UniProtKB/TrEMBL annotation:
Catalysis: reaction(s): fluoride(in) = fluoride(out)
Name the UniProt record assigns to this protein: Fluoride-specific ion channel FluC
Chain residues that bind Na(+): G77, T80
Family in the record: Belongs to the fluoride channel Fluc/FEX (TC 1.A.43) family.
Primary localisation category: membrane
Subcellular localization: Cell membrane
Length: 128
């Protein structure tokens, strides 16, 4: 693995983690806290963006690999947070909040898949 790849992931990761902190804080401050909406927001945003990036890369194969790594593995890898989603869902279940836990699981799972596909299709249709 090259040093440029490591630098790309590390610098993108710093940006993505900071964005996750900011988005999570803003969403949780401004919306009621029935579900962990901050985590849901970063997972949905990240899924939309990864779909869009993969579609863009599909049509722009000359894009340098370290830029792809910076954006996808670095920024989006640190922005989205499956482990946080998992523990928050567990805590909801443990507290007996079964409906909220189910809603959180369904929204994260299906919402992220839906938005990844939507992002991909949006970019594909705009690059035709």
């Amino acid at each position: 693995m090259s040093s440029i790849t490591i630098i790309a992931v590390a610098s993108g990761g710093a940006i993505g983690a900071t964005l996750r902190l900011l988005i999570n804080g803003i969403v949780n401050k401004h919306f009621a806290h029935v579900l962990p909406l901050g985590t849901l927001a970063v997972n949905l945003i990240g899924s939309l963006l990864i779909g869009m990036l993969f579609a863009y890369f599909h049509h722009n194969s000359s894009f340098p690999p370290y830029i792809k790594t910076f954006l996808v593995t670095g920024i989006l890898g640190a922005l989205t947070t499956y482990s946080t989603f998992a523990i928050e869902s567990f805590f909801l279940l443990e507290a007996g909040h079964f409906m909220q836990a189910f809603a959180n699981i369904v929204l994260n799972l299906f919402g992220t898949i839906l938005l990844a596909g939507l992002g991909y299709l949006l970019v594909l249709n705009f690059t035709k």
